[in-house]
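Entry 12.
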Amino acid sequence: MTELIDLAVTDHLLSTTRAVRKRLDLERPVEREVLLDCLRLATQAPTGSNSQGWRWVVVFDADKRARLGELYRAGGEAYLRAAGATASPNAQQARVQESARYLMDVIDRVPVLVIPCIEGRITDLRHAAAFFGSIHPAVWSFQLALRSRGLGSVWTTFHLAYEREAAELLGIPDSVTQAAMLPVAYTIGTDFRPAKRRPVEEITYWNTWGDTLGPGE
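Predicted 3D structure (tokens):
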């Protein structure tokens, strides 16, 4: 018998899992078992050559979160200064930057910081797609699992400007690559909606770049 999946529930989960910054609940603790449940689901994601090289560093310790927050703010300030020097943001970009600055201010107060890692280091950029393709699906599965349990997260990379310092703080070996840092917390409300996006018909090309109609249209 074919197993049926509830499309309405699945589509709602996929279309409403947002990058959450301002609506992270900074006061409510996050339970260890909830995180482990979400990570169990994450490790069902595919990996290159079925290598299963994901590793997860889950940081509850307040002192370590404070130090990671310092690294995150230093990387974020440098990034935002560079972004401000190159272009004037439109309204949407300005909102994202304002949200990013809010998270920079409170990052160390977020109950949990999760650093997804992948065994190995990039030595040849030609292998980058396969290398990071072995961790990104697992991270997204983790974020979907969080959403289904009333928690939120956001993919961040500001701290990677100081990856070595973070590795030293957390005891991460030199042979392991940090892919991101995810602030994780319960969300303030769960009423997230699909985001405004360009129609998929405008950005899907059939057989040739730029052909949005395809044969027979």
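Annotation: Strands lie at 54-59, 112-119, 151-153, 176-178, 182-186. DSSP finds eight helices and five strands in the chain.
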